[in-house]
Amino acid sequence: MTLLRRAGFWLLVAAILAFALFPFYYAVLSSLRPPARLFEAAWLPEDWSTANYAAVFAGQSFGRNILNSVAVAGSVVAVSMLVGVMAAYALARVRFRGRATLLAAILAVSMFPQVAILSGTFELIRALGLYNRLGGLTISYMVFTLPFTIWVLTMFLRELPRELEEVALIDGAGAWRTLIDVFLPLTAPAMVTTGLLAFIAAWNEFLFALTFTLTDGQRTVPVAIALMSGASQYELPWGSIMAASVVVTVPLIALVLAFQRRIVAGLTAGAVKG
Amino acid sequence: MVERTRTAWLFLAPSLALLALVAAWPLARTVAFGFTDADLGTLQDWRWIGFENYLASYGGRSYGLLLDPVWWRAVSNTLVFTAASVSIETLLGVVIALVLNADFAGRAWVRAAVLVPWAIPTIVSAKMWGWMLNDQFGIVNHALLSLGLIAQPLAWTAEPGLDMASVVMVDVWKTTPFMTLLALAALQIVPREFYEAARMDGAGPVRAFFDITLPVIRPALVVAVVFRALDALRVFDIVYVLTSNSVDTMSMSVFARQQLIDFQDVGYGSAAATLLFVIVALVAALLLTAGRVRLGEGGVLR
């Protein structure tokens, strides 16, 4: 490579890095500025303060919101994995009539616009007595986590060799035992991937959480951040908003970077945006 | 064999029951609500009004969703948003994937860094950008002012035209990693020997891209574009947080939710939600036919 082309290449890499990282860097920087100096623009940290973080946890129910998000995302992952792996096993390992149609229908559900089922789901959640309760979110989130859990796990289970069932059959194991003893251990890596993607999807969901909860104490993190307001409508508490944003984003970034390989594998197999 | 089939359906039953409950039933109810005058406060108390939410006339004047300029504005906003964001994301995604596919020191780190926007919740990215684009205190205006590129601060999220550009930009930032990943996965199946052969033939890098790389990654890209487009057509979070209920940027989803929840008009809002569903289904059919993709076969979906 000539010098010029090398320089151009590294310039491109630098531009990509700046584009990808600057907004988050700036959020961290803003969250750590003393509230009084927030409105003077700065590119580099000058003086530090944790006042914004203290404000988020002191004045509002943000701690509670985080617990809510953990509870909802955790239960969504548990239910969709348990139910999803059973369905995936049937779809991947048993030949039966209508299998291809069923798989296509399940994939179609994962492309449902959430708004298209908003009023129907609202009515359902009220009828079940789950309005303004976390359980309502867990149930309604199945519409986007379950189809893609089933899809990715099916794609994975399909690749496993046929002999596995034969071994299990010789041992006289039933379908349930075969799934638990033979396939589940082998599926563990795919389960980690789909579990992570389902967790992230549930953690980030906004429309349902905004519509099906009413009080501060029942809100999840995205809704809490979106609705944070100051003394007046025109005076948003940007320092607190940035601090809250950093608090909920850091664990997610850590998770994604730690499981980078698995997540990429899941995304390319499922081709579903989390 | 019969027994295995029965077991299969037994294993499928919980999933199918759940999906019937949270997908099929609510969809059917939404479509039905579209033909009623239901109100959010008294949801049980409704009557059938036929197509009146869509089109009705009283005393010589016609009303209804099909004649509602705000709805059609939302439709065109959504289409503009989808076309702009998906094409920019695809372009950027392929360029970044090509860079990441090259061998250079620190490549793993750059690839990890590129994933960061994808890991950030949509609401948070919209808020982060909302702060950066703030008209009085935002760093973007500060930078442009000190570089002398603009004479006075711009209202990025309020000025007509500019607001849509901001929404598109935030979506591009958030979703380009997804495109990059899919393009990169596709690039890795292009055999290195192909490039050597091309170099022997004296083809430059640009020709090599169009003659060798693009045909190989095309099926995967088409699938990615279809998924992204369907996703962009239902956009809600970014628009709602960045520009709230402004008619200028309002998407179909924002319109439907505003009718349903803010105006409590479940009938009218459900009619809009139904039309949205029909539009998304039509675009899906169109894209899949045009791209000649069979889901479950080509490219990444295998």
Descriptive report:
The complex is a heterodimer of chains A (274) and B (302). Chain A has 274 residues and is mostly helical. Chain A has two domains: 50 residues, no CATH class; 211 residues, MetI-like (MetI-like fold). Helices cover 73% and strands 0% of the residues of chain A. Chain A has twelve helices and no strands. In chain A, helix 3 packs antiparallel against helix 8. The model of chain A has no long low-confidence stretch (mean pLDDT 88). With 302 residues, chain B is mainly alpha-helical. Chain B has one domain: Orthogonal Bundle (MetI-like fold), CATH 1.10.3720. Chain B has eleven helices and two strands, in the order H-E-E-H-H-H-H-H-H-H-H-H-H. A two-stranded antiparallel sheet of chain B has the order 1-2. Chain B starts with a helix and ends in a 12-residue tail after the last helix. Classes of the chains: A mainly alpha (274), B mainly alpha (302). At the A-B interface, helix 1, helix 3, helix 4, helix 5 and helix 6 of A face helix 1, helix 3, helix 4, helix 6 and helix 8 of B.
* CATH homologous superfamily placement of the largest domain in chain A: MetI-like
> Which consecutive residue ranges of chain B, at least 5 long each, have pLDDT under 50?
296-302
Residue share in β-strands of chain A: under 5%
Q: What would the average pLDDT of chain B be, to the nearest integer?
A: 89
What's the end-to-end separation of chain B, in Å? 27 Å
The largest sheet of chain A is:
none
Oligomer: heterodimer
Question: What value does the Rg of chain B take, in angstroms?
Answer: 24 Å
Helix content of chain A: over 70%
Summed up, the helix count of chain A is 12
Q: Please tally the β strands of chain A and state the result.
A: 0
The CATH architecture of the largest domain in chain A can be given as: Orthogonal Bundle
Describe the biggest sheet of chain B? Answer: 2 strands, antiparallel
Structural Rg of chain A: 23 Å
